[in-house]
Amino acid sequence: MNHKIGTNANDLIAIEKEIRNDYIGIISKAKLRSKLKNIKLFDFNNVIRYLELSNQIYVSKKGLVWIQNDNKKLRLILSDCKKNGRIYE
Fold first, then answer.
1. Reduced to 3 states, what is the DSSP secondary structure of residue 24?
2. What is the CATH number of the domain that holds 17?
3. Domain containing residue 48
4. Residue 33 burial (CB count, 10 A)
5. Sign of CA dihedral 27, 33, 36, 42
6. Rounded CA gap, 56 and 83, in Å?
């Protein structure tokens, strides 16, 4: 018996790719789910929860949007502003 526990990394990559690369703006959870029918609902929800908790996506009533920013220049500017007291947490 081969029981799979947890979410497959391929599921995570597929969902992340759909949200990150294929959509500009908000995508509804239902539309995303319909594009990824081969992923179990339980695994789909776990990946969405993980991406939200790791601040890579924002989940609202209207849908999901990719918010993670890998721009090094922006991160440098924000950290500089935080050091100089122009940004508060």
1. coil
2. 1.10.10.10
3. 9-83
4. 15
5. positive
6. 24
The CA distance from 43 to 82, in Å, is 37
Domain count, the chain: 1
Over residues 37-85, the pLDDT tens digits come to 999 999 999 999 999 998 888 888 888 888 877 767 767 776 777 777 7
CA 78 to chain centre: 21
Strands (E) in the chain, as ranges, are 57-59, 64-66
pLDDT tens digits for range 16-33: 888 887 667 788 999 999
pTM for this predicted structure = 0.69
Residue 2 lies in a domain: no
